[in-house]
Amino acid sequence: MKLKLSAPDFVRRSLSSRLSVLLALLFGILMLAALDYVFTQTRKGARQEAEGRAEQVLDNTVLRVNGILEDVEIAADNLEWLILRDITDPDKMREYSNEIVRNNAILNSCSVSFEPYFYPEKGRYYSIFSYRGPDDTVLWKQEGDDSYQYFYLDWYLMPRLLQKPCWTEPYNDLEETDDKVMDTGMIVSYCKPIFTADSVFVGSFSLDVSLQWLSETISAVRPYPNAYCILVGRGGTYLVHPDPEKLFFQTIFTEGLDHPDPEAYELGRAMRERKQGMMEMKLGGEKNYVFYKSLPNIDWSVAIICPDSDIFGPLDMLHRTVVIIVLMGLLLMMLLAAWLIHRQLLPLRTLAVQAESIAAGNLEKVLPAMDRDDEIGVLSQSFRDMQSSLVRQIDELTKATAARERLDRELQIARGIQMAMVPHTFPEREDIDLYALMTPAREVGGDLYDFFIEDEKLYFCIGDVSGKGIPASLMMAVAKSMFRILAKQGLPPADIARQINDIAAEDNAQMIFVTMFFGTLDLSTGVLSYCNAGHNAPVVLRHKKGKAYFLPCKPNMAIGIMAGFEFEGETLEDFRGDTLFVYTDGLNEAENAAHEQFGNERMLEILGENQRKGARDIIEIMNQAVAAHVDGAEASDDLTMLCVRMAK
Fold it and tell me: How far apart are CA 474 and CA 170, in angstroms?
């Protein structure tokens, strides 16, 4: 019996047909890619790419230069603040002038100058000039005498007349030493007037930037190998140019005086008018593309000149690249054909070896992926599915076991951290007896207590966070920390409750709240001040009455529900000889297996029977009574107790 195959099946299952179709498709894709690459990289594409690159470089150059100028202006604002702050101390002016030069590498020098006789003890002239010396040291001198009346110079007069900061035009910086005058190069200054609080002009200061440094910064930017940048001032004067002879003494219009050039004139006029754009023009007999843009905060313009040869020269390289791509494509097809033939025969041999290894229990062996529809492909996929399923189940089981063990370890660590947060050392004093005990229902809980003695006052608190587990423990840690911080400030309990509540209620999207009882016991007077924030009323054992009863408490809101709540505090005038028992609802609401609660009556009865005993004895007796009532049932809530007893 002969097997009949349709055309698609034959193509899919025949090795020769499959290779023929694959090679034809691959060759077609390579040729199309090569042709597409050639056609898209035409002169139009090269020009668009050049425009984008040049505009990006131009924008970055403008941002860089403007960033330098803004850094100078920011430094000037900082210096102005310091000058105005210490305007009455002339010696501070030298200190600030030196520091501003030392801390700003872009600054060449700084002058801080004042009106004649502003400082009577300094005479008519007082101008501090700080400048960068050899080895980047900062030197200074006091300028001004009858031969150098600085208050008539541009950098001093311009901000005074304009009554605002300004940049000067570039000028030659001459440095006078003991025996000669040195030319340190062209600089530009940012000047600011100095006005007192009542708007009286008292002087000017200037920060100087070397145009040489600025020129190096701008000239370093080149979108193409032979491209270069120029910077012109407000009148068209060259401030940055690759030809040093044109700097500062020629303008962008100079060459047009002898040989009129409408394109150069149009470019100069556009840059002087602070416009932005691109022009094609000839410079030195060669076609160039000029991209220009003005600086935002100063009347300067930057231009990038890109030669035509730099932009379109790569097109020749493009043609050679296409030829190489085609040749490499043909070579790749031959190598790929050889690999495909070998690949068609390899799966059976590889599958047999891998299947034998998997049968021996080595599930880490990776079966080869086969994208084919015949029996080998189906068999390979079945083995892969079986292997993946086994590996996945074993991996999930391993991860689940490891995650559970890691969680148990982390919860044990968290329990240790939480228990370490509450104090376990109790004061040993004659006038007070205090003891506390906390038992979380889970690994971590939401109950808390804290106490400390400072300035003969006992500050203490107890609290119960809504819910249990890690969220409750986090709220517990925050509440305890805030209590200690605020109590250390000597605040009364009501103020402590108010401030903790405002902090806890802020952004409390989970609506986790905590009931708390705050107390302050003056050990010298016996006055007990307290505030109950939604907590169970404590039990007080008064030696005069001889019985246990709940301490009267005003109905304040729990902590964390609503910010701005005004908590009310209360006072027990004479606590000497009395005992206060504070607890969480894990005591009176403790349930046994039959869901019967421990109850307030039983708690009051036990406290009344043991009111003459010490604080530790009372808590241990109560803890034993709760354990006997629960009788091994799972704890439904955290249990915390605090007992404080004051001597008569």
Answer: 63
> What DSSP string runs through 561-591?
SSTT-----EEES--TT-EEEEE-HHHHT-B
Give the position of tokens 């110079």: 153
Total Cβ atoms within 10 A of residue 633: 14
Contacts 24+ apart (CB under 8 A), 481-485: 483/450, 483/516, 483/518, 484/450, 484/452
Which residues on adjacent β-strands are paired with residue 174? 183
Q: Domains (ranges, CATH) in the chain?
A: 86-211 (3.30.450.20), 422-646 (3.60.40.10)
Dist CA 43 CA 288 (whole Å): 15
Question: What does the H/E/C string look like for 75-118?
Answer: HHHHHHHHHHHCCCCHHHHHHHHHHHHHCCCCCCEEEEEECCCC
The predicted-structure confidence for 571-618, as pLDDT tens digits, reads as follows 999 899 999 999 999 899 999 888 899 999 999 999 999 988 999 999
Token couple for 183: 């030319």
Rounded distance between C-alpha atoms, residue 320 and residue 324, angstroms: 6
Q: List residues bridging with 465 in a β-sheet.
A: 514
Q: What is the pLDDT of residues 135-148, one digit of tens each?
A: 888 999 988 888 88
What DSSP character marks residue 244? G
User: CA nearest 313: which of 411, 227, 242?
Assistant: 227
417-433 average pLDDT score: 84
322-359 CB burial, b ≥16 within 10 A, e <16: beeebeebeeebeeeeeeeeeeeeebeeebeebbeebe
DSSP-assigned letters across all residues of 437-505: EEE-SSSS-SEEEEEEEETTEEEEEEEEESS-SHHHHHHHHHHHHHHHHHHTTT--HHHHHHHHHHHHH
Q: Measured between alpha carbons, how far is 4 from 162 in angstroms, rounded to an integer?
A: 98
